[in-house]
Design a protein that fits this description.
alpha+beta
Length: 78
């Protein structure tokens, strides 16, 4: 198994920061807002929160996240 040195760890951290850094929205774009999709899972409530200018276009992403939570629930339940 190969080990990642300090330079490799810095490169990974830099890549994560670049991919997750908030991007400014141009003046003509709609403002972004948070939209919460609630569900019951694992005996409690879970909320998938997406920040987007178009919540209808991002609904499939929320459904995919909810499917993952449902899958984890099915694996951990009797």
């Amino acid at each position: 198994m190969s080990r990642v040195g300090p330079i490799g760890r810095c490169l990974v951290l830099l890549a994560v920061l670049v991919m997750t850094w908030p991007r400014p929205t141009p003046a003509g774009d709609a403002p972004r807002r948070s939209v919460t999709y609630a569900m019951r899972t694992m005996g409690t409530y879970a909320h998938v929160v997406l920040v987007s200018a178009d919540s209808a276009a991002d609904a499939p992403r929320a459904a995919a996240a909810q499917a993952v939570l449902h899958r984890v629930d099915s694996l951990m339940s009797n």
